[in-house]
Write a structure and sequence with these properties.
single chain, 3 domains, 5-stranded parallel sheet, alpha/beta, globular
Length: 500
């Protein structure tokens, strides 16, 4: 069977560019980015990329750490695929020009981050791993046979007889393709306070939902425990600082994480974020403190140049004493349901990276597994595209059908983000979630000339609906009215828009 002639990639982070480069070996490739190529979560990634590459480590140990943090919802096959193919993904990135930091003996410099039992996080430029990866990818893209179009928003996917055959842009242009790969990134910018760029508005989730694809676990939004928060902006303070010995202090400057979890500051992110939130609530404070100033100032500036400069620009010196931090929307574990080959339930439509839900992260992503997932599963998706794979099998479990207007819109991004921040944030309850759903109902007759706003509204509603239905607290999903884990809910939630 001949390879497809034209592949359309939507998104310009690690998953998107890696896929475009690989697909250009056998097809004409068009890559669309609604912003500049640099405006991605990949570019902002600080800590690094996890991989079992030393003799003291093993993909099975990496898998066990991942599953332990995933709060019972990880797909074992997806996790095994992720960790077993990690070394190959790292080798490919090195081949593309990424220079990871090394020790003086020439071996990779590895860091420890939350939920990892041993050091396995490769980094570049200290805490500027994403910048180094994105820069290398863009350079390779400029040399490749790929038609790159920036500043172009996909308004809808083109569906013919149940098959995805391309996309329609905000310029009313239809781009036809034999295969379409969604690599649109995350959902952090559905919230007012986030570490994500403003363009991370869950376009891929909304596009796939309109196309009839099955969605998985949209309620699981990870809030990074430590961000410098102010004026509705958030600057990420890498988990790698806690890996180097930074401690969290409450409003009275007392350390509190050792009493919460045996791994203290290196507990899974959901545990740390929840403990910080409870400490803030107990002390009626809008932050806790993060202190790494006991380490040598010169070392901190060398190891964390990005964090040091970024914090200093915001009036805080990590070498001089504790800095104020609070959780901020960071990563979406939920997304478009895919199998381990990036196949969605719609023929011709694939997804990879943060917009996809492979099942590898479960209810709580382990630090530095996100870049790895983007690299591993984008490559697998391209291989499936090349082989004209059938769509993914329907997932096991009950798929809930939602009758929603797929094109209604919040009046503005500001109003949408305010509603999500207030009631669908790190802690939720039925009253707040129902009030947001009522707000969505009021907006049901509203339309917008901005296709991203309509897609963001649909994605936000999907997250809210799923959060209301999951009546337990698990991983990153914390219900104040259902504070315990419910064994009956040890399953993924599956969703699909009802066909009119």
């Amino acid at each position: 069977m001949r390879a497809p002639k034209h592949v359309l990639v939507i998104g310009s982070g690690l998953a998107g560019i890696n896929a475009a480069l690989l697909a250009s070996d056998f097809a004409d490739v068009t890559l669309i980015s609604k912003s500049s190529l640099e405006q991605t979560n990949t570019q902002r990634a600080q800590g690094g990329i996890a991989a079992a590459i030393t003799l003291l480590d093993d993909p099975e140990i990496h898998a066990a750490d991942t599953i332990r943090a995933g709060a019972g919802l990880c797909d074992p096959l997806a996790v095994a695929t992720l960790t077993s193919e990690a070394r190959a993904a790292i080798d490919r990135l090195v081949g593309l020009g990424v220079q990871f930091d090394q020790r003086t003996d020439g071996h990779p410099a590895l860091a420890t981050e939350g939920a990892h039992s041993i050091p396995r996080v490769l980094h570049a430029g200290g805490d500027q791993t994403g910048l180094h990866i994105q820069s290398a990818l863009i350079q390779r893209l400029e040399e490749a046979r790929v038609n790159v179009r920036t500043g172009l928003t996909v308004a809808d996917l083109a569906i013919d007889a149940g098959r995805c055959v391309g996309a329609v842009t905000d310029k009313h242009e239809t781009l036809l393709a034999d295969a379409v790969l969604l690599a649109t990134g995350g959902a952090g910018a559905l919230y007012r306070t986030t570490t994500n760029p403003a363009n991370a508005t869950a376009d891929g989730l909304g596009l796939a939902a309109r196309a009839g694809a099955v969605l998985r676990d949209p309620e699981f939004v990870q809030f990074h425990p430590t961000a410098l928060v102010g004026d509705d902006s958030a600057f990420l303070i890498s988990e790698a600082l806690r890996g180097e010995g930074a401690v969290l202090l409450d409003a009275n400057r007392n350390r509190f994480m050792p009493a919460v979890h045996p791994d203290a500051e290196l507990a899974p992110r959901s545990v740390v974020a929840r403990a910080i939130t409870e400490s803030m609530r107990a002390h009626d404070s809008d932050h806790v403190w993060l202190d790494i100033s006991h380490l040598d100032a010169d070392y901190l500036q060398q190891r964390f140049p990005g964090v040091y400069r970024g914090a200093l620009e915001r009036g805080h010196d990590i070498t001089g004493g504790p800095i104020p931090v609070a959780p901020a929307a960071h990563y979406h574990m939920g997304g478009v349901y895919t199998d381990v080959d990036g196949r969605t339930t719609v023929r011709g439509l694939y997804a990879a990276g943060e917009c996809a839900s492979t099942g590898a992260h479960g209810a709580n992503r382990v630090a530095s597994n996100s870049l790895l997932e983007a690299a591993v599963f984008s490559a697998r998706a391209v291989n499936a595209i090349r082989n004209h794979s059938a769509p993914a099998d329907q997932p096991t479990g009950v798929v809930r059908s939602l009758r929603l207007h797929p094109h209604c819109s919040a009046p503005t991004f500001k109003s949408l983000r305010a509603a999500m921040n207030q009631h669908v944030g790190i802690t939720r309850d039925a009253h707040g979630l129902k009030s947001v759903l009522s707000q969505f109902d009021e907006w049901s007759g509203t339309s917008s000339s901005d296709p991203s706003l309509a897609l963001a509204t649909l994605s936000a509603r999907l997250i809210t609906e799923a959060a209301l239905q999951r009546t337990e607290s698990r991983g990153s999903h914390i219900r104040l009215d259902y504070p315990d884990v419910d064994p009956a809910w040890q399953r993924s939630s599956l969703w699909q828009l009802a066909r009119e």
